[in-house]
Write a structure and sequence with these properties.
The protein has 252 residues and is mainly alpha-helical. The chain has 14 helices and no strands. The longest helix has 18 residues.
Length: 252
């Protein structure tokens, strides 16, 4: 069959050549010769790209099969490249939901890479699945924080907040801003904390961040008043350790 395929190729009968090679690749795959199957599928793909791009839809299974076989062989970087090609092509032709399935496979293979989660988040946002997008944006932000890329994490959290005004991420954005402490960061932190404060004005974590934001802005009197309120709430709710800690801060 390989020789027949080679002869078709020499005669420039590309459809027949690819179809024949396809039979060979399927045989190798079924028999467990994954490396040989990959080599044949790559040859088919090269022929399509160089000589017969019009056959790409007819042999649309070639790239997915390559990615699948490479995953089985634990050649993840190669598999990811093919999955990326598939997802990009699907998005180009408007098949966004099919692209999401591919992006999910990419995340399963490369879950520690924030870019994988970001691309899935963007794809979900395109189909207005904002809940799903928020989850993926959140995961990307957490990974970025773990590897010390705080500015990038902040940008991701701010994108997330465009879709969902969630207290958890509003506080996270405020924390990054306060710790960064660049010009205007204190005011930006206060703006982010409005979401959390409106949801629960008695939350001690939110009040602590508010006090820190006022301190960054040089508004010490306001910071003290917020800490007093937090201390009162801690006493009322019998959180003695928290109350003692807040009292020590106030005395200082």
């Amino acid at each position: 069959l390989l020789k027949v395929g080679d002869l078709y190729l020499r005669m420039q009968q590309f459809a027949e050549a690819i179809a024949t090679y396809d039979r060979v690749a399927q045989y190798y795959s079924v028999q467990g010769f994954s490396v040989k199957a990959v080599a044949v599928y790559k040859q088919m793909r090269e022929i399509i790209q160089k000589h017969a791009p019009h056959l790409e839809d007819r042999f649309g299974h070639v790239v997915p099969k390559l990615a699948e076989l490479l995953t089985q062989l634990d050649l993840r970087s190669d598999a990811l490249a093919y999955y990326d090609e598939m997802a990009t092509r699907l998005q180009t032709v408007g098949r966004d939901r099919d692209a999401i399935d591919i992006f999910r496979k990419i995340v399963s293979l490369d879950g520690s890479n924030p870019v994988s989660h970001l691309r899935l988040a963007d794809a979900l946002a395109r189909v207005r699945d904002f809940d799903g997008a928020s989850i993926e944006f959140g995961m990307a932000a957490e990974i970025l924080l773990r590897i010390g890329r705080r500015d990038d994490a902040l940008r991701v959290v701010e994108r997330l907040l465009q879709y969902r005004q969630e207290t958890k991420f509003a506080r996270l954005a405020a924390t990054i801003l306060i710790e960064r402490n660049q010009p205007n960061d204190g005011m930006a932190a206060l703006t982010k904390l409005q979401v959390a404060f409106k949801e629960n004005p008695r939350d001690l974590e939110t009040l602590g961040l508010l006090a820190r934001a006022f301190d960054v802005l040089g508004q010490t009197a306001k910071a003290v008043e917020v800490q007093k309120e937090a201390a009162r709430i801690a006493r009322e709710t019998n959180q003695r350790d928290v109350f003692d800690a807040l009292l020590a801060i106030l005395v200082q």
